[in-house]
## 1
Amino acid sequence: MADDDTPLPLDPERIRAEFPSFRQSELRDFAHFENAGGSYTCAPVLNRMRHYYWNTKVQPGHPFGPSQDAARAMDESYRRLALAMNLSPEWIQFGPSTSANTYTLAHAFEGWLKPGDAIIVTNQDHEANTGVWRKLVSRGVDVREWTMDRDSGHLDLAALDKLINAKVRLIAMPHASNIVGEINPVEDVTRRAQIFREIEVEIAALPGRQREAFLMRYWEEMDVAETAAAMGCSEGSVKTHCSRAVHALSRALKAKGITL
């Protein structure tokens, strides 16, 4: 977009000309809507690959010309991708495939998640990406499915609100779904997750008995009698602790601009 928000001109013919494959007669009249694994490659990428195989297919970083060129090309790839994605280069990670990267990430989270922790997945995602998270149910993790609307393909934020609570440690969702072609509101989802993180911080700051009563009543969904028995106090005391906790949380969250 230009500075005045005027859409930049799109020249389909110029863009199509950058894909040598489309010069073949069998492909000339086709429009391709594919995922990354089945896409034709544009000429600049092909030329980079040709240069790599002809000149720099060596171990990078050693004290001779092609190896130094290879190291510079690798550094440049991080810089350019970071620029395109509006990130700093240290956030960029390369791996063999999205599926393999997701498997590695899920395996790392497996050692951090505890039985009873919850994660949220969607049915708008590719099984190769969501399956690794779903398997964590075997480790006692509560796997909750954020189900898309069958008619529209949308992931409704109101449906997410019914799933997310303080037990949720991870929301695994696609930014852009290649199942239904949907771009999801990641910023809104992240904001919801951050609100629950702030709630957790303020709950931890409550006096011990208030925190204990609040968690049992509203997180564990125990009734007043069960909470009183677990805490060894009267039902009236439970109600008092919960009332004070709710008011304290409300004040603390309001001060942070959060209204529930």
## 2
Amino acid sequence: MRYFIPLEFYYGLVIFLIVWYVLSFTPAGQKALVIGQSREVARLTGVRVDRQRSWAFIIGAAIAGVAGIAYAATNGTVDPTAGSALILPAYAAVSLAAADRPPIPPPTITSRFLIATAPGQAPALRPRWRACARARSGTR
């Protein structure tokens, strides 16, 4: 049995690298981080807070749309309850990412991304776990 990383993982990794680059090395990213620290301070320094926040929500919605399209393309169908199993890992990843201030270095967020996507790999690995358990117990 071959194990592989789904294509959606690579899509997510590319999006992550783009967002990380934008937040770390561009003026728009620095403004977004300042707004996240304190809206009032950002407004007093001349940052257009409402405009930046609007763009943040628009970009976030676009990324969610790409994720939805990738999910639908993988499963071939979508129903209203399709993402309910994905909610807890997503909240866990967001909570872990929000725990660190100032911005998170790439290795930390990459490990959190892997942790958040690992539950999807569990069904593919179950046969191997069963074989290991049988080998240890001496049964077939």
